[in-house]
Amino acid sequence: MSARRGAILREMGLAPIWRLRGVEAQEAEVPASGVAEVASTASPEAPSHAPPAPAVPKLAEFLPAADLRPPIPNRPPQSAPLAHPVTAALHPERAKRIAALDWEALEADIRGCTACRLCERRKQAVPGVGDRQAEWMLVGEGPGAEEDQRGEPFVGAAGKLLDAMLASIGLKRGEGVYIANAVKCRPPHNRTPQADEIEMCKPYLERQIALIRPRILLALGRPAAMALLDTELSIGASRGRIFHRDETPVVITYHPAYLLRNQADKAKAWEDLCFARKVVAGH
Ligand code: URA
Ligand code: SF4
């Protein structure tokens, strides 16, 4: 293991575990077909048909290969369409207006937004950061104290871990990666955003997704997953599966702040990232 790779994995708390776990562990999480109404077939190749995994996986296998990105094939229509235009139904004019904004107007709109109670105690709204042509779009929960102060998502302790997680699969904030949150304003005392706040903020998230058109949406934690999929779910039961928001694959993993409190689950988060990388690569 190179010193740099070792340092990245140590930063994530993965170094010892990484040597013990094979790719099989990660693939064992993948069911042969989706079971929830929003899940598609998780993997066209069932894990049992996969070629034998090397005993010791090389991290390099999960690093980006510029020429290894075939387009994601068109998918058949989903049998159970997602019922996500809740906000549009409640506030059709607002949703319609936001859906037509360009990047500059969208960010200005977010910064001036007073549509929900979270505007009252924020220092500033935090629209998002990164590559506007990103293949990867990460969605967190909402800004914390440092994000509220600095106006950028994931700049506190959870953000440092997120950067290490990205580095572990060869990604970097701002380079092919865009980071946003389900709500753009800090919930007081970092409480979980409420469903109506997420709904009210959703047209902004939807517009960001529409402008970026990422190859993958990575939901960090339960509120983000619920914002993207408009359904109740648990992280544990959702890991290792491909969901969809319209045509865009959605992969769900733990929130970095949760991982800071539950170090043992970092290895699972790394498996999820490796799984997401395979989804982006189209296999
Ligand atoms: N947690 C989040 O969900 N988002 C941030 O931007 C920071 C911490
Ligand atoms: Fe507006 Fe979203 Fe902030 Fe609520 S959280 S005030 S909807 S930008």
How would you describe what is shown here?
The structure is a single chain. By secondary structure, the protein is α/β, with parallel strands linked by helices. It has 2 domains: 63 residues, no CATH class; 203 residues, Uracil-DNA glycosylase-like domain (Uracil-DNA Glycosylase, subunit E), CATH 3.40.470. Helix content is 40%, strand content 9%. The protein has 13 helices and 6 strands. The chain has a 6-stranded mixed β-sheet, with helices on both faces. A hairpin with a 2-residue loop joins strand 5 and strand 6. Helix 1 packs across helix 8. The radius of gyration is 18 Å and the shape is globular. 42% of the residues are buried. About 25% of the residues have low confidence. The site of iron/sulfur cluster has 14 residues, from helix 9.
How many separate domains?
Answer: 2
**Strand coverage percent:** 5-15%
| Number of helices, counting only DSSP H or I runs of 4 residues or more | 13
Average the pLDDT over all residues and give the rounded result: 80
Strand order of the largest sheet: 1-3-2-4-6-5
Q: What proportion of the residues is helical, as a percent range? A: 25-40%
The CATH architecture designation of the largest domain is: 3-Layer(aba) Sandwich
The major beta sheet can be summarized as: 6 strands, mixed
CATH class of the largest domain: Alpha Beta
Helix-and-strand structural type: alpha/beta
Distance between the termini: 26 Å
DSSP summary, beta strand count = 6
Q: Give the overall shape, derived from the CA principal axes.
A: globular
Q: Give me the CATH superfamily of the largest domain.
A: Uracil-DNA glycosylase-like domain
Question: H/E order of the elements?
Answer: HHHHHHEEHHEHEHHEEHH
Bound molecules: uracil, iron/sulfur cluster
CATH names the topology of the largest domain as Uracil-DNA Glycosylase, subunit E
Radius of gyration: 18 Å
